[in-house]
């Protein structure tokens, strides 16, 4: 369960041409400056199921399989590097990784630091304890309550905005509790330390399916227009274009939709 944010390539132009939509002509691709020759090294914070998480000591999830499919289109071997979410952008800027592939939400602050290749839309929803003992039916019901979020994640931004609304309306304060991972947020709700937590639509689907005896979703989905994307260093157009072509190829051959279905991701989130 989870809820809580990955370089260059020396791939043959013919590979990209064939990988594009069938009707698209092959285009010459500028060589990319990879961290490790023949490998697509990407940063991932493996604490955000179903996108990236660890199972039996192995990295798995949508982004892990998606990353492998993208690397294959570029004739490269996938090389994920598990990093704490807050360290992903510094790792990219410091050239420890070629790209970030970790369901990173695209926002203005991050777009000032990196460039993105979008690949999916994500929404948000609240999760409460099974039976909803506090009777929380929407975000407006949280004034005077506590909400758990992942430190530094987009959910913290929404929670802070909700807290400001409670204050501006003269209502009881909303307490925002921050945790290192979405799992920690969920645990705080399960233990009754927090009344609710904000989770992505993908994370909600997973936790409600796997732990329906402990959690349930409540309230409407909000901010469904948020996009997630692969991140490259600012101004690295060669890598961005190579990724864009590979992503289109992965969508065109059906892999993208197959992976969305496998990991229970809502089809409305597709960008293709």
TrEMBL record:
Keywords: Signal
SUPFAM superfamilies cross-referenced by the UniProt entry: Periplasmic binding protein-like II
Location of this chain's protein in the cell: Cell envelope
Keyword check for Signal: yes
Entries under Pfam families matching the protein: SBP_bac_3 (PF00497)
Similarity-based family: Belongs to the bacterial solute-binding protein 3 family.
Protein source organism: Roseomonas indoligenes
Ranges where the Solute-binding protein family 3/N-terminal domain occurs: 39-267
Name of the protein: ABC transporter substrate-binding protein
Annotated Gene Ontology cellular component terms: cell envelope
PANTHER family xrefs: ARGININE-BINDING EXTRACELLULAR PROTEIN ARTP (PTHR35936:SF17), MEMBRANE-BOUND LYTIC MUREIN TRANSGLYCOSYLASE F (PTHR35936)
Record's signal peptide: 1-28
């Amino acid at each position: 369960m989870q809820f809580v944010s990955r370089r260059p390539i020396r791939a043959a132009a013919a590979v990209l041409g064939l990988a594009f939509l069938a009707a698209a002509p092959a285009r010459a691709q500028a060589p990319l400056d990879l961290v490790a020759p023949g490998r697509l090294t990407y940063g991932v914070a493996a604490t955000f199921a179903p996108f990236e998480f660890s199972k039996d000591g192995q990295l798995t999830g949508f982004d892990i399989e998606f990353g492998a499919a993208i690397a294959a289109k570029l004739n490269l071997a996938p090389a994920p590097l598990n990093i704490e979410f807050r360290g992903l952008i510094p790792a990219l800027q410091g050239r420890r990784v070629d790209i970030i592939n970790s369901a990173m939400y695209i926002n203005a602050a991050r777009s000032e630091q990196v460039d993105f290749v979008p690949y999916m839309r994500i929404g948000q929803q609240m999760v409460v304890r099974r039976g909803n003992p506090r009777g929380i039916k929407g975000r407006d019901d949280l004034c005077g309550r506590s909400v758990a979020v992942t430190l530094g994640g987009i959910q913290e931004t929404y929670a802070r905005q909700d807290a400001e609304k409670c204050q501006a309306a003269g209502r009881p304060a909303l307490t925002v509790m921050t945790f290192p991972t979405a799992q920690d947020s969920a645990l705080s709700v399960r233990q009754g330390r927090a009344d609710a937590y904000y989770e992505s639509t993908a994370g909600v689907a997973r936790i409600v399916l796997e732990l329906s005896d402990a959690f349930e979703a409540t309230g409407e989905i909000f901010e469904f227009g948020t996009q997630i994307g692969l991140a490259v260093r600012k101004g690295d157009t060669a890598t961005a274009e190579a990724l864009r072509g590979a992503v289109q190829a992965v969508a065109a051959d059906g892999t993208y939709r197959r992976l969305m279905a496998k990991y229970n991701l809502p089809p409305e989130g597709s960008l293709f």
